[in-house]
Amino acid sequence: MNAQVKSLGRSKTEREIKVITLSAGTSSAEIWTHGGRLHKLEIQVGKKLQSIVVSPSDPVSKPSFAGASVGRVANIIKRAQFEFQGKKYSLEDNFNGDHIHGGTRGFHSRNWEVADIRPDQAMVRLYTRISTEEDSYPGMLEVTLTYRLEENALHTEFRAQSSHNTLFAPTLHPFFNLSGARNINDHKLTIPLQYFQKLEDGVPKGRPVAVKGWNDLTKGSKLESILTGPRTDILNLCWIRDGLPSTEHLCSLSAGNGVNLHIHSSMPALQVYTSNTMKEDGLRAFSGIALEPEYPPDSANRVMKNRIGLFAGDARMERIIYKWDIAK
Question: Which Gene Ontology terms cover its molecular function (predicted)?
Fold first, then answer.
């Protein structure tokens, strides 16, 4: 195991951007302090190393959610407003009149500090803090984001505290392409969750409903049959667990080269985005798929509100684990 650090130069805030490479066996993960992002994840496939994450070529000068940490609150907050503990708050409307992914000053745009690094554990812990003046959420939020690599798994953990009652519902936003092909058509997606949330322009429409027909992916579905159809945006939905889970497994993704990826999380939902509208350097439509463990869209205004609440002085943790294996 190992963890190495190199400099990528200075950010706009004049703080040095660092790249941390974690190594465990034949696997490696490249973590950038800018955005707290997972920029690269390489694993051994046969006789070669295969990167299973696709990232924008220059996420520093052209800020991107792709690969980055996202927060304070991932996904949509409708009309960029919410009420919590009897107080109303207005946020930046950075997405068609709504608020998305913590706004332009959110986790993805920040150059995180290296709080701890342990080469013998292939681990790095990043730290940032964000104030009300920066993002309009209540309270000074202090957050650590830990990445720890094993040969067949990447463990990640957010931990946060706030000076005032606030909301906290983060995620990570990597795009996966397990085969290195130009698109993800040969991938198979399995989601063992019982409900999905209909969305309209990213905003929840109605209550979650039981999976049925094309959105029932409990037994898996080949992406080609969906992505080459008339509705290329059809998978851009949120699937939700039913009640208290007996497992944290949210989904599995497999490719024709035998690579299987399994995503586990403490969070109750999975947002899927097939990159059908991507036009970033290094990313294009269907070149990767985002599988985002999180709380459902607009939780700040819906039944999940209390679950994403973080009260002054308390600490809360959310974890995401990526596991992989190679079919024989």
Answer: aldose 1-epimerase activity; carbohydrate binding
The distance from CA 203 to its chain's CA centroid, rounded to whole angstroms, is 18
| Overall pTM > 0.85 | yes
- Contact between 180 and 50 (Cβ < 8 Å): yes
CA distance 167 to 164: 10
Determine the Cα–Cα distance for residues 47 and 3; give it in Å rounded to an integer: 23
Sequence ranges of the domains in the chain: 2-326
Q: What angle do CA 98, 158, 315 make, to 5 degrees?
A: 95
Taking the alpha carbons at both ends of the chain, their separation in whole angstroms is 25
77 to each of 74, 137, 283, how far by Cα in Å? 9, 12, 26
pLDDT value of residue 207: 86
Query: How far, in Å, CA of 1 to CA of 25, rounded?
Result: 7
Can you tell me the distance from the alpha carbon of 283 to that of 281, in angstroms, rounded to the nearest whole number? Answer: 5
HSE of 81, CA atoms in CB hemisphere, 13 A: 4
- Give the residue from 52, 293, 280, 62 showing the smallest Cα distance to 175: 52
Q: Which residues of the chain have pLDDT under 50?
A: none
Amino acid residing at 169 = A
User: Is there a cis peptide before residue 72, judged by omega within 30 degrees of 0?
Assistant: yes
Number of neighbours of residue 285 by Cβ within 10 angstroms: 14
Instruction: Specify the CATH number for 2-326; select among 3.10.50.30, 2.60.120.890, 2.40.10.10, 2.70.98.10.
Output: 2.70.98.10
- Phi, psi of 123, deg, nearest 5: -130, 140
Closest CA to 76 of 237, 203, 240: 203
pLDDT for the residue 257: 94
